[in-house]
Structure prediction request, 128 residues.
Amino acid sequence: MATKKKKIKSVKPKATQPRRPKGSGSRPELRLKTSEKASGKRKLTTVSDGHCFWLHNGPALTNLKDLSGAFSKMTNDQFIYHANKTKNDFASWVEFVLLDPECGSNLKKCNNKASARACTLKALKKYH
Prediction:
């Protein structure tokens, strides 16, 4: 009985990516610069079209300042469409897209436009 020899393919080693310095974390864009740490203020995050918040029957919002202004202009129906007992689209967008978990958490507790606007205005004080 003849046995067949299997051909072994040579595997090239994978190209290694440069390593990040220790403590840089998985999201380098979230690290604050030294001047930002000293002043305690961050740069306001503005997102592109692909990540903007589309208000129901309204405009697209690109940052926290836009959202704060929209609370004073939107109807109660628009607010309830995005924030009700089962969901809060505003809080999710602020937390995961604008990367402000503190403001997102506070927005989850807001049950009307006025309190949501007050929450965003308070959060805007930590930006420049």
